[in-house]
Amino acid sequence: MLERILVAIDGTDYSWRALEFAAHLAEKCGSSLAIMTVEKEDTDIAIFSGKDEDAPDQVGDEVLNAACTLMEGKGVECSYLLERGGKVADKIIAVEKMERCDAIVLGSRGLGVLEGLIKRSISQEVVENADVPVIVVK
Questions:
Q1: How many Å from the N-terminal Cα to the C-terminal Cα in the chain?
Q2: What is the arrangement of strands in the sheet containing 78-84, beginning at the earlier edge strand?
Q3: Which of 102, 106, 112, 137 could bond 8 through an S-S bridge, CB–CB 3.0 to 4.6 Å?
Q4: Within 10 Å of residue 105's Cβ, how many Cβ atoms?
Q5: Angle CA(131)–CA(28)–CA(127) in degrees, nearest 5?
Q6: Residue 39 forms beta bridges with which residues?
Q7: Are 5 and 25 in contact (CB under 8 A)?
Q8: Helix (H), strand (E) at residue 111
Q9: pLDDT tens for residues 51-82?
């Protein structure tokens, strides 16, 4: 059912919980993970396989390095993606399509009621606009 799961991380506690949840789900379903993060610089997507130990340094993103370390020994096939620039929710959805993922897992940042009325969260935008199931982890 779930062959490939996209996990969007940003280094927050919520995103690490989302990664742990996605890893557990992938292990149970025999799925692979596409783990991504977004930086605020305009360049193309860089992709590497988790099998190459030097690859996280090539990307140069501390969040992906930490994710790679967390995933070591879990027995889940992972690829790591770095996206730069643009609106984060749009980038997540674009990568989901490019990687042909069956689901998206991301963390909630826990906006309060007032802040939630003023500002939409990334997770809310992804839930509303994605064509695949989205799991938001608290």
A1: 24
A2: 43-49, 78-84, 32-39, 4-8, 103-107, 134-137
A3: 106
A4: 27
A5: 20
A6: 84
A7: yes
A8: none
A9: 444 343 333 368 899 999 999 989 999 999 99
What are the tokens at 40?
């605020």
Identify the H or E element spanning 116: helix 113-118
The residue behind tokens 């949840």 is 21
Please calculate the CA angle 44-125-65 and round it to the nearest 5 degrees.
45
Write the single-letter amino acid at 32.
S
- DSSP assigned state of 17: H
Place of tokens 């809310």: 124
What tens digit of pLDDT does each residue of 74-122 get? 999 999 999 988 888 999 999 999 999 999 999 987 544 444 445 578 8
Distances (CA, A) of 89 to 18, 38, 58, 69, 77: 16, 10, 25, 25, 24
Structure tokens belonging to residue 95: 């990568």
- What pLDDT shows up at residue 42? 45
Task: Kindly give, in sequence order, each residue whose CB lies less than 8 Å from that of residue 64, ignoring residues fewer than 6 positions away.
Answer: 35, 37, 56, 80, 82
Tokens 């608290």 correspond to what residue? 138
Q: Token pair for residue 28? A: 């149970």
